[in-house]
Specification:
Elements (H helix, E strand, L loop, with lengths): L3 E4 L4 E4 L7 E6 L10 H19 L3 E6 L6 H10 L3 H18 L15 H13 L3 E4 L2 E4 L15 H7 L14 E6 L14 E3 L2 H12 L3 E7 L3 H16 L5 E7 L2 E3 L2 E2 L10 H7 L2 H9 L7 E2 L2 H27 L8 H22 L4 H20 L4 H18 L13 H15 L3 H13 L2 E6 L2 E6 L2
Parallel strand pairs: 3-4, 3-9, 9-10, 11-13
Antiparallel strand pairs: 1-2, 5-6, 6-7, 7-8, 11-12, 14-15
Bound molecules: adenosine monophosphate (AMP) and zinc ion (ZN).
Length: 471
């Protein structure tokens, strides 16, 4: 199956066709850096991490850009409250953002451009928009003229009239149309400022993404993403500006938006004060536990965060690691098959089938919950192969497939030292097996307790007894 992606613009799942064969350009709106990042940000950037990892896995050469909004009203407000320079405050939280992303195992984008580093590019676009009649200057501010764009509202499928009436509350009288938005703002006292043809000022919010995506990815990009709160007005406005600037070249082929991470059913956000920072999360939970949590819901859907769910994910992660550890151990001692064995042949075929189903799920708009359930099927197959003491080639095939997919998911990246079980423990496990076979439950329980005191936990499964180190 080939990759299909749900495009917010059409609301449909569409066949993915990049503009240039085998290459994908992707732009995701980055954070406004005025505070520590919370796990809602973590959800969005981890979702795009999974998407870019999968695109790379499919063989695409991916160019991925995430901007850093380091000039913004909220940054200025916070800086004034704390007596800091706004750009210094932004620099501090830009650094913590990167540290948080690394701690979550999120791969770096190719470029993380900042607004403050792209003022000339922004001014150039605004000048062109004014020249083309898409923008006007009022007292040092510059506004975009939405009514000049015939198809304004096409991303959200709204008419200009509907948008206009929505924007009417507290409207600035100097605007020609209530839905017009600022491209450049005259800076007030104490605000960061740059010289421009319209006086000293700073860029409005939306224009930065048109400028930075154009600079790093060209006037047309394959995928544009962000959280779903950005669809309107941010992406609608970016789209209008970019196409006005380029002369109607379709700006983005596929618009992807992530669902919110919620807490008690409400969007996690700084303004609601219901947030958990990534630092706090990682104090308690491993990054891969959070990754399993993110994988278990489709990127477009909301997901509610609870400690209970994370506890469940932690157990699942432990089971995955145990299987991988056991596979590695058993491979060290396993024999090669001399003659093909029907059961092994069947299991090997099953591995290929499960992998194919998993890939099909990812091809279907990155359906990670379905793909994850297939991944658990691979783990089950691994356990079966261990319990049946299968050959080196079967064990290796299942282990390699698990690791290949884990890499796409960004899981199992932790280095683990796989120690062979001491002989004494191996003997005890065998003795317990024998005791169980002769239904000597008392003896079997004694051995189980003895192993527990040595930090070895036994789990009796239909496919056989498995062991793991105690957490
Ligand atoms: P911000 O710094 O608020 O501009 O957010 C940066 C990115 O994180 C945007 O794409 C937001 O849509 C996304 N985001 C913010 N809060 C959440 C949340 N609770 N769940 C998912 N994504 C979020
Ligand atoms: Zn943006």
């Amino acid at each position: 199956m080939t990759l299909k992606i749900c495009n917010t613009m059409s609301g449909e799942v569409e066949l993915f066709k990049p503009r240039v064969k085998n290459k994908v350009t992707i732009y995701v709106c980055g954070p406004t850096v005025y505070d520590y990042s919370h796990i809602g940000h973590g959800k969005t950037y981890m979702s795009f991490d999974l998407i870019t990892r999968y695109l790379e896995y499919k063989g695409y050469d991916v160019k991925y850009v995430v901007n850093i909004t380091d000039i913004d009203d909220k940054i200025i407000k916070r800086a004034n409250e704390s007596g800091m320079d706004p750009l210094e405050l932004a620099k501090k939280f830009e650094k913590t953002f990167h540290a948080d992303m690394h701690a979550l195992g999120i791969k770096d984008a190719d470029v993380y451009p900042t607004v403050s580093g792209h003022i000339p590019e922004i001014i150039e676009i605004i000048q062109t928009l004014i020249k083309k009649g898409f923008a006007y200057v009022v007292d040092g501010d510059v506004y975009f003229t939405v009514s000049k764009v015939e198809d304004y509202g096409k991303l959200t499928n709204q008419t200009l009239d509907a948008i206009k009436s929505g924007a009417r509350v507290g409207v600035d009288e100097r605007k020609q149309n209530p839905a017009d938005f600022a491209l450049w703002k005259n800076s007030k006292v104490g605000e960061p400022r740059w010289s421009s043809p319209w006086g000293e000022g700073r860029p409005g919010w939306h224009i930065e993404c048109s400028a930075m995506s154009t600079k790093y990815l060209g006037q047309q990009i394959d995928i544009h993403g962000g959280g779903r709160d950005l669809i309107f007005p941010h992406h609608e406005n970016e789209l209008a500006q970019s196409e006005a600037y380029s002369g109607k070249k379709p700006f983005t082929s596929y618009w992807l938006h992530t669902g919110f991470l919620t807490i008690n059913g409400e969007k996690m956000s700084k303004s609601l004060g219901n947030f958990i920072t990534i630092i706090d999360l990682l104090d308690k939970w491993d990054a891969e536990v959070f990754r399993l949590f993110i994988l278990s819901t489709h990127y477009r859907k909301p997901v509610n965060f609870t400690q209970k769910t994370l506890k469940h994910q932690k157990q699942s992660l432990q089971r995955i690691y145990n299987t991988v550890d056991n596979l590695r151990l058993q491979i060290q001692n396993a024999q090669e098959l001399e003659t093909p064995d029907k059961m092994e042949e069947e299991l090997q075929k099953q591995i290929s089938r499960v992998k194919e189903t998993l890939i099909n799920a990812m091809d279907d708009d990155f359906n990670t919950p379905k793909a994850l359930s297939e991944f658990y099927n691979l783990i089950k197959i691994g356990n079966k192969a261990i319990a049946a003491k299968m050959s080196k080639s079967t064990l290796t095939k299942v282990l390699n497939t698990i690791m290949e997919i884990a890499h796409v998911f960004g899981l199992l990246e932790k280095k683990r030292e796989i120690k062979a079980l001491p002989e004494e423990i191996q003997i005890l496990i065998k003795e317990r097996d024998m005791a169980r076979n002769r239904k000597d439950w008392k003896k079997a329980d004694e051995i189980r307790l003895k192993l527990k005191s040595m930090s070895i936990i036994l789990e009796d499964k239909p496919e056989g007894t498995q062991w793991r180190y105690q957490e």
